[in-house]
Amino acid sequence: MLPRIPCSRLFFLSFLTTILITSAVLYLLSPIPGLTSPRTPSELAAPPRPKACFVILARNEELFSLLPSIRSLEDRFNSGPGGGYDYVFLNDKEFHTDFKRRTSALISTNAKYGLVPVEHWVQPDWIDEEKATKAREEMKAKGVLYGDSVSYRNMCRFQSGFFYRHPLLEEYDYYWRVEPGTNFPCDLDAIDQDPFRHMVEKNISYGWTISLVEYAETIPTLWDAVKEFMKLYPQYIAEDNAMRFISDDEGETYNGCHFWSNFEIANLNLWRSPAYQAFFEFLDSKGGFYLERWGDAPVHSIAACLLLPKDQIEFLEPIGYYHIPMTHCPAHDKNMHRCHCDPYSSVDLHRMSCLRKWPRVAGAKKWVLPGL
């Protein structure tokens, strides 16, 4: 006759058996070194995701030209392993419900929608409207693009001196400006192809893809104001700056070269700095945004070239970009597997491009993707 085992002991043996079986199963199911897919070097070495976002200034009526831009950006970068960044939408009018619904439906992360304060958007009261009206009429007669547009001038002034002050951007350090009607034809589908991480790691404050010559008719007195600023605030001018990119005669005149700012990736702290704040306030006091037609592209470009050391500005060559009517398409066959654009249609090859001036300034400093 078998000995009887007390119930308490049976419970203990049953509990112990369960623990042993569970441990064995977990052990068998655990990864075995050498047999599992290893993490890629880029995943192992990837720095933390920067505090960065996409910034989009858009109107409700631009919705259906904006949606393809978002879809392109998501497919090529943001929904991949190197992406994961928020979107901040800004408008001088309240966004419609349908705008929010359709844009957020395409986004793999968070979408935030903000209203631009009236005082950051409208023409200041101190502008002489009679002179401003006359200037617009003269530009219209000359056929200057947006020459008679007040709303375009509002946008240029806002992008020059106010967008980075919006409360929705306070938590971010970097931004990528995105416009309606744009397209991104090249993959950035790995962590080490994330331009934000690259710029943080290499201490790059301003990145660009297209550089053109500005319409001289829109900025007749801009450089005079810039030279006046440089004399008044020499402490803000970087020693090893990129003056040679924007002037061919050591600062006497402006050659018109500017980074096409409808695409730019930059450190928000550049615009938040005392140097740039002083620069913008000084230019704004001249009234040129309305009495002429100063654009945010030459304002940002001149500021970056004067206030930053030249090694903090970089040509982001791997990022393909299209905004009517210009295309930047990365050159060389090495990009064929990641781009669908025609490199021979790239504005980089056109005489209006200022890219040819960049090597003499920064030694051809540009972003090169790992392995290419």
Describe this structure in words.
The protein has 372 residues and is an alpha/beta fold. Helices cover 38% and strands 12% of the residues. It contains 14 helices and 12 strands.
What characteristics describe this protein?
14 helices; 12 strands; 372 residues; globular; alpha/beta
Summary, kept brief:
It contains 14 helices and twelve strands. The protein is an alpha/beta fold and 372 residues long.
Q: How far do the termini sit from each other?
A: 80 Å
Described by the principal axes of the CA atoms, the overall outline is: globular
Work out the strand percent.
5-15%
- Average pLDDT metric: 90
Q: Please list the strands of the largest sheet in the order they lie side by side.
A: 3-2-1-4-9-6-10
Largest sheet: 7 strands, mixed
Oligomer: single chain
Q: What's the number of helices?
A: 14
Helix content: 25-40%
Structural class: alpha/beta
Walk me through the topology:
Elements: H1 7-29, H2 41-45, E1 52-57, H3 63-78, E2 86-91, H4 97-106, E3 111-115, H5 129-142, H6 150-161, E4 174-177, E5 182-183, H7 195-202, E6 206-208, E7 211-213, H8 222-232, H9 243-246, E8 257-259, E9 265-267, H10 268-272, H11 274-285, H12 288-291, H13 296-307, E10 313-315, E11 321-323, E12 326-328, H14 358-362
Parallel strand pairs: 1-2, 1-4, 2-3, 6-10
Antiparallel strand pairs: 4-9, 5-11, 6-9, 7-8, 11-12
Helix pairs in contact: 3-4, 6-13
